[in-house]
Amino acid sequence: MKKLERSYIRQILDAINERTISFAGGLPNENLFPVKDLKVATNKVLENPLCLQYSKSQGVEGLREKIADIYTNKFDFPTNKDEILITTGSQQAFDIIAKTFLDKELYVQKPTYIGALSAYKVLDMDIKSFDDLDDLENKLNSTNGFYAMSDFTNPTGRVIDQKRREDVAKILNKKECYFIEDGAYSLIDFNGVIRKPISALYEKSFHMGSFSKIVAPGFRVGWIRAKKEYIDQMMVSKEAVDLHTSTFNQMILDEYMNEFDLFEHIKLVRKEYKSKMEYMAECFEKYIPSFEFKRPQGGMFIYGSFKEDSFELAKKALEVDVAFVPAKVFFHNNQDSNEARFNFTNSTFEQIEQGIIRLAKLLSPNNEIKKECIA
Amino acid sequence: MKKLERSYIRQILDAINERTISFAGGLPNENLFPVKDLKVATNKVLENPLCLQYSKSQGVEGLREKIADIYTNKFDFPTNKDEILITTGSQQAFDIIAKTFLDKELYVQKPTYIGALSAYKVLDMDIKSFDDLDDLENKLNSTNGFYAMSDFTNPTGRVIDQKRREDVAKILNKKECYFIEDGAYSLIDFNGVIRKPISALYEKSFHMGSFSKIVAPGFRVGWIRAKKEYIDQMMVSKEAVDLHTSTFNQMILDEYMNEFDLFEHIKLVRKEYKSKMEYMAECFEKYIPSFEFKRPQGGMFIYGSFKEDSFELAKKALEVDVAFVPAKVFFHNNQDSNEARFNFTNSTFEQIEQGIIRLAKLLSPNNEIKKECIA
């Protein structure tokens, strides 16, 4: 039998109880889901029983058109509906791309998204990393792959800047490896900036997107943007893994975008997340000034460094009912680290302050922490 | 790059147009979907925004409880909620079971479900078959697997009888291979008989089920029933492939079963499908008496044998806008065959008669076919 381990994050999510203040998951704030509008869309969709029937492996046409339009008009990356494959959450994209195109070897950023690591490990892939771009150039070739997040990388929150995007594209065009670019957070820049993906500069690429962070994750609807030839090849894997993504959920999202303005909603999400991020940053600065971090420009996490091993600290934190993710689990080689990731989107202001005070007490049990209103 | 081919059925489904009378898919009748009741359930579920949030990899607890109850009370197979893993359609179960447990070698029935073949081929598995039970006994061992449908096998519609179930269980208990039993049609016996699965007689087994044929496929909700130890191991693969199945769709089905009687609905489906099957059988007997088949006791297909190669016939049939599936594609070794599968659930009585008349004309262009009312 094969040996597989559950992801540490999913284990934490399963372990948290109602007392836990959790900064661990990557959960968006459910109070921001556009439930009222989605209800309108859902009831409209239910007028046609075909919304509950089997449908095409590539995905619902209207939805693919709308996603293509986002690429063309928002990402400055001309795209048509035949270049979009709908997936069951963007998590499934890892599996489909790897099954269809990748051999053994894959390069990732260090640290990187834990879900990508899980998906590739289950496929027995050989996951590797690199130290700098020169190093990367020596390692890529036409049969291996490179996975990266360009915008608000999970976990670090970093953005690959324009100059570096061009450098990466230059390397890719020279080495001709498969490039997988994850855009899960690309539309959540706090100032509304939308950057052109590296994939727009390189043809042998796959750009992954998702409705999970901009509408709601419970639908499990994501997508892959790639050239048509690749989409056609991936459909074989797509139908093998789950035939197609829920017709119902695709049609609801399609109808929601027919009737309502998705980008008006995203504006609201950005604004709310920005204020949560700022509040968490202020709490860290006030209660745990030794925690070193930079305020992110977007996304859902604050990433920083403690003065001590974060894996041990995370275990102790669970005992005082606070959950966060130590960076160790984001490294493909499981290296020790003082760094840690804190999600700020799924907690109230009160919980953010309470949680960080609990952590501060854990770190300095003899110092009395004074709780004051920050804002 | 890997070489993968799209399934013939999905290609047909993509090729059919509004003129085509299609007996090709395995589509349930969308006019039977309990849309009104599902609408009530959906609107109830939407009162809680957590229906659109991420959820646990194993699946929504209430739904797992209800599925476990079906095993215990209907299949005479005692089961609790920890022995159920929710999957994104039962198609995903192939992928998850194989990734978690199987090595290279897998035995299947001949012919067998094409979706199983696709799922295993994408994983580069070595698919084999056997001629009779003695032969099977010589081939199974503790590291390989055996996949079978016991009830209304897709495509043949055959049922493995009680005596043979016990024989298979005896072999399994002796050889200790992994056993994957597909129950997609188990609840659609036209007389309401529900048979105890072979899995109930053998511990190293996985029983797959689905809401696709008994409620609606557009939700993409299926499940695996296995012992808890296996479920825990499969959760690693489940979270790697798509984190979890749509929270929304799981909660709708859970609420639907809270508020309405699933088995009252299934009764309606059985009755309707039985009358469609009988009508198609009468049409074959009348217009194409040379087509040899047995009336199935359940499921969604009539399977039989022409006097000529069915693959060639299926191609010609598409030209007169009739689609059905030649048996060749259900054989893992792609062997030639005169046999073919006809779906009767997704056509009207009128379409069934029209389609078979068109086929009859194709087979005997010089005979004048008289269209008369059969019923």
UniProtKB/TrEMBL annotation, chains A, B:
GO biological process: alpha-amino acid metabolic process
Domain called Aminotransferase class I/classII large: residue spans: 30-356
Keyword Disulfide bond set for record: no
GO molecular function terms noted in the UniProt entry: pyridoxal phosphate binding; transaminase activity
Entries under SUPFAM superfamilies matching the protein: PLP-dependent transferases (SSF53383)
Gene3D superfamilies attached to this UniProt entry: Aspartate Aminotransferase, domain 1, Type I PLP-dependent aspartate aminotransferase-like (Major domain)
InterPro entries membership: Aminotransferase_I/II_large, Class-I_PLP-dep_aminotransf, PyrdxlP-dep_Trfase, PyrdxlP-dep_Trfase_major, PyrdxlP-dep_Trfase_small
Cofactor(s) in the UniProt record: pyridoxal 5'-phosphate
Keywords on record: Aminotransferase, Pyridoxal phosphate, Transferase
Matches recorded under PANTHER family: AMINOTRANSFERASE, KYNURENINE_ALPHA-AMINOADIPATE AMINOTRANSFERASE, MITOCHONDRIAL
Name of the protein this chain belongs to: Aminotransferase class I
Species classification: Bacteria, Pseudomonadati, Campylobacterota, Epsilonproteobacteria, Campylobacterales
